[in-house]
Each structure stands twice: as structure tokens, then as C-alpha cells.
Amino acid sequence: MAGVTLSGQNDPVLELEGIRHVFYARAERVVALEDFSVAVRRGEFVSIVGPSGCGKTTLLNLIVGLQSPTGGTVDFGGRPWPSGHINTSIGYVTQDDNLMPWRTVKENAEFGMEVRKLDERERSAVADRLIREVGLQGFERHFRHELSGGMRQRVNIIRTLAYAPDVILMDEPFGPLDAQTRLQLQGQLLELWQSRPGTTILFITHDLAEAIALADRVVVMTKRPGRIKATFDVPLPRPRDIYKLQTSPEFHAVYERVWRVLEDEVRERAS
Question: What are the boundaries of each domain within the chain?
Fold first, then answer.
């Protein structure tokens, strides 16, 4: 499946149809996802929210090929993706930075490009540019233990962006960070994404405000087994000022609409 030709701007680059996933934990049968169907257009930023345990991370693992769905299909670039095969055209940013502690910031940023056998000078130039874009110049030779949590996650993100994947999956990448650092990274992520037309992001978060601030669409999932309960367009103009956005009446109108649907799932989960 290498060398997949992607569809046009308005066609889905990623399409899930009738996804179902069942696993067993301590001999107990657990239905994680049921009849989950969604299409994501090329260049779109989609956020997914839902109660804890509704299958959000499982969904990303199925998309990238780390797990195989029990039922349904995953299409990438208009073609079915073979079950059990890792999709190397998809980047995956997790909550844990997973930086290699024996490599410097720049060496970590270059890792994906090394795997793809890019020329050394090209790797160096791309890494230097991305390091500047996220404000880490001067830290190129630092190691993981010398960085703050926010700095580590910046390196995690640019390591993925460096090899220019067509689709990027992000699983609560800012979850463990403080509020100020989260805002900074949200703003940088938007700038990086907007400067790369055609890059598609599927973003998992428990923070509804974050989901709305970043995305073109917000998908709300039900409690387990996870299904799509509703999808909302986010009609906020781009580029967005992440620091001012949440004070706008338009933002709060979208938040109220989405929260009315999500609240039932969260309250049921907590009851």
C-alpha cells in the first residue's frame, strides 16, 4: 500500500465505515466501539470528544493499523487499508512524548526522516526550521531530561511533522500540561498546521474548549460502546487567535451547543 495517491481536497482522505471492536479483559468480553462511521476530508482538523473509556484511543490504534477492527472497514486515500498493516503515511502523537533519552532534541526531531532515508543535509535543514518554529532554538543539543514537559511535547510534535505525514493522529497531546503551556502549544499547533495545507489532523481530547478552539468539526462520542452521537461544524474564522478566541460570543455559542449533547454522556458515565 505504499505510495497511495490521495484524493482531492473535498474527498475523504480517511473513511471509517461500520467500525466495531471487541476485546477481552480478564476473560470479560468488552465491546469498545460499535457502528462507528466517519469521513475526514484532506486538510481538515477534526476533534473527537467523549467520556473516559468510550474507545477514543482504540479508534486511533485501529486507524493507524496497530490493531485490527473486529468489523467494518478503514479506507485511506480512497482505498481499503489492509487489516494488521501499519500505515506509515499516518503520524501518531501520543500523550507521552516517547523521546529517546540518548538522543538530543535535534536528533529526536530527525528520527522519522532517518527511518525514511532522507539525505542528511535535508534532515538537518528541516529539523532546524521546525525547531525555530516552535521556539526551541538554543536547545538543539539538549537531552530529554533537560527539557520541561511542554518542550518535550514540542519535540514530539515536530518529530512527526518533520517527515510530512498525510494524516496526523493526536491522542490528548496536551493533557498533562499546565493551562498556560497548553494554550501556547495549541497556538503553535494551529500555526504549524495552517502553514501546511493538505495536512489532516484527527485530535482526541477531554477538553471541550480545546476541541472547539482547534477544529473545523467536533465529533461527540457516546459512552462505551463508543458510537458517534453528533457532529458539529465549528464556524469560527481562521486564522484563530487562541488567546482571545474563548472570550468571543461565537465560541461560547458553539460550546453551549456541543456541551448540551456531551453532558448527558458525561453525567451518565459518572452516575
Answer: 90-164
